Amino acid sequence: MKIKAPLLALAFQGMLLMTCLAATAFADNNRPNILFIMSDDHATQAIGAYGGRLAKLNPTPNIDALARQGMRFDRVFCNNSICTPSRASIMSGQYSQRNGVLDLEGHLPPERQFLPIEMKKAGYETAMIGKWHLDQEPAAFDYYCVLPGQGKYHDPDFLIRGNKPWPRNVITMEGKHSSDAITDLSLEWLSSKRDRNKPFFLMHHFKAPHDMFENAKRYDEYLEDVEIPEPDNLFTPPAGSEGSKGMGSGVGRTHAPWNLARKLGVPDLPNDRDYAKAGYQKYLKRYLRCVKGVDDNIQRLIDYLKATGELDNTIIIYTSDQGVFLGEHDLMDKRWMYEESSRMPFIVCAPKRLQSGSTNDWLINNADFAPTILELAGIQKTPDYMQGRSFADALVGGAKPADWRTSLYYRYWMHLAHSLAVPAHFGLRDERYKLIFFYGCDLEGKNRTPAAWEFYDLEKDPHEMQNEYSNPEYAEIIAGMKQDLKRTRDELQETDKKYPAIQAIIDAHWHK
User: Fold this and answer.
1) Residues 164, 165, 170, CA angle at the centre, nearest 5°?
2) Distance from C-alpha of 42 to C-alpha of 57, rounded to nearest angstrom
3) SS3 per-residue string spanning 188-216
4) What is the rounded CA–CA span in Å between residue 358 and residue 291?
5) Using one digit for the tens of pLDDT, what is the confidence trace for 191-245?
6) How do the domains of the chain map onto residue ranges?
7) Which H helix or E strand runs over 364?
8) CATH number of the 408-509 domain
C-alpha cells in the first residue's frame, strides 16, 4: 500500500531552543517523558560539542545546544561496533553472548526486548520509530513503525502492525527522505496516536548518516565550496600487528578492498594521494549532509515539545549505535576496537536535574543504557538479568561509585565479513590503556588470519599510532590487563567455551 506522508496539524516554527527542561523527580505522579534519539554511525568527530577537527564547520548546532543545556558524556563505548549487536545491547541491557546477537544476522525476539517490556511495566506508553534492524517484530512496544532492515534513504517503506503477519504490513512515505519521514512519523505519534494519560518513552532512530550517505536534496549545496579538514593520519594506516596490518577498508585504493572513493564516483586519478584526498572530500561532504538532516529534524522534535508544553517534563537523550572512521588511519566504516569506531556520542538534556554544560568521564558502555533509562523512569533496581549498570546518578552530580568499573570489554565477531576485511578480535580498555587480541577466525576456526596482540597507551598515544605490545616497559601492565581481561570475560559469560576452535587459538597465544 502506498500513502502520502502524513500531514501534521501543527506547524512547528521557532528560533533555536535555548532552554530544555526535564523532570525534577521520578515519583509516580511526576514521571518524565523520555525521548531517546539515536542515529546510525554518527561519530563524535562529527558533533560540534565534542570539539573535533570538524567542529568549526558547525555541523550540529541543535545537538550542540542539547549538550550546552545538559550533560555530555565523554567516555561512552559500544561493546561491539556494528549495528545489530549494538542495538541488541541497548534494547536488552546485555552483552552479545547473553542476548544471543553476535553479528548482523542476529535477531531479538519480543520476549527479549527487555527495555520496552520494563518501561511498559512502569506505566509508560512506548513507541519505536525508524531504524530497528533487529529482524523480528518489535512487538514489545505499544506502537512501532520501523524500516525493514537497513531501509531506504528515499521514499522509505515502513513496517507497521496490521492484519497481515510480520513483516507484511507496509506503508511508504512517498517523496520523503528517511530523516524527514521518521520525524514526521514521530510527530504524528506524539500528536495523535499515543495515550496522553501516560508518560511516553519514544525511541526515535534515524537511518542517517549510514552509508551510502544519501542526503535530502535541499542539502546538495551544503559545504560544496568548503575544504573539509583532513585528519593528520589520513595516509597512515594503523600501526597494528601481524593480526591487523593491511586489513580494513580505506577511503582510497592503497588500503582497501572496499575503495570508498570508487563507490562514490571519484575519477580514477593517477596519484594515490590525490585520489584519496578527493575521495575523502566527497565522503565527508555526503556524510555531513546526512548529519545536517538529522540535526535539523531533531530541532523539529524539540519545537513540538516546546509548543505543547511538554518540554519541561521530557528527558532528551542523543546517541549513535557506534562510532565510525571518517578517514582516520585511511579507514572508513566501523567494526574495530580502535577509538573512532568504538566511541559513542551520548548527550542528555535534563537541566533541572543537572548543571548546564556539564561533562562526565565515567567508563560507560551501551549495555548501561537500558538500566539508566529504567532508573530515570523511576525503576530503582536494575533487573537481575541485565548486565549493564545505571549511571543515572551522574546526571544529578553524584560522585562515581567506588565500585564503578575500571575497564570496558569489547568484542567483534564478524571475521572478514562483507569484503571489509576486519579480523575478529576482543579486548579491554581502561582509563589509560587498551589491550586487543586478534584471534582471527570465524566461529568454526576457519578463514584464519594471524593471531596477534596489540597494546596502546592512550595517554601518550591517543590516536593509536604505535603498538607497544612488545615494549618491555609495559610488560607488567600488559600482564595485569590480561588477568583483568580473563576475569571480565568470565564475569560477563563472554568466553569461548562454546567455540573450541577459537579457544584453542586463545590458549596457544595467551602468553606470547
Assistant:
1) 60
2) 16
3) HHHHHHCCCCCCEEEEEECCCCCCCCCCC
4) 24
5) 999 999 999 999 999 999 999 999 999 999 999 999 999 999 999 988 899 999 9
6) 30-219+282-398, 408-509
7) strand 364-365
8) 3.30.1120.10
Query: For residue 168, what is its C-alpha cell?
Result: 507484511
Name the 3-class secondary structure at 318.
Answer: strand
Alpha-carbon span 357 to 56, nearest angstrom: 19
Whose CA is closest to 206, among 228, 184, 191, 235?
184
Phi-psi region of 240 (alpha: psi -120 to 50; beta: other; left: phi over 0): left
- Phi and psi torsions of 71, nearest 5°: -125, 130
CB 339 within 8 A of CB 45: no
Cis check for the bond before 212: say yes or no (omega within 30 of 0): yes
| Cβ atoms of 39 and 206 closer than 8 Å | yes
3-state secondary structure of 314: strand
Assigned CATH topology for domain 30-219+282-398: Alkaline Phosphatase, subunit A (3.40.720)
- Report CA 229 to chain centroid distance, whole Å: 23
What phi-psi label fits residue 172: left (phi over 0), alpha (psi between -120 and 50 degrees) or beta? beta
How many other β-carbons are positioned within 10 Å of the β-carbon of residue 353?
Answer: 22
Give the tens place of pLDDT for each residue, 449-505: 999 999 999 999 999 999 999 999 999 999 999 999 999 999 999 999 999 999 999
Helices and strands in the chain: count of H runs, count of E runs:
11, 19
Q: Which among 145, 141, 137 is positioned nearest to 126, based on CA atoms? A: 141
Residue with C-alpha cell 533496581?
A: 381
Q: What parts of the chain have a pLDDT lower than 70? A: 1-29, 351-353
> In terms of Cα–Cα distance, which of 419, 296, 398 is closest to 354?
398
Compute the half-sphere exposure of residue 11: CA atoms within 13 Å on the CB side of its CA: 2
Cβ atoms < 10 Å from Cβ of 268:
8
Cβ count within 10 A of residue 172: 17
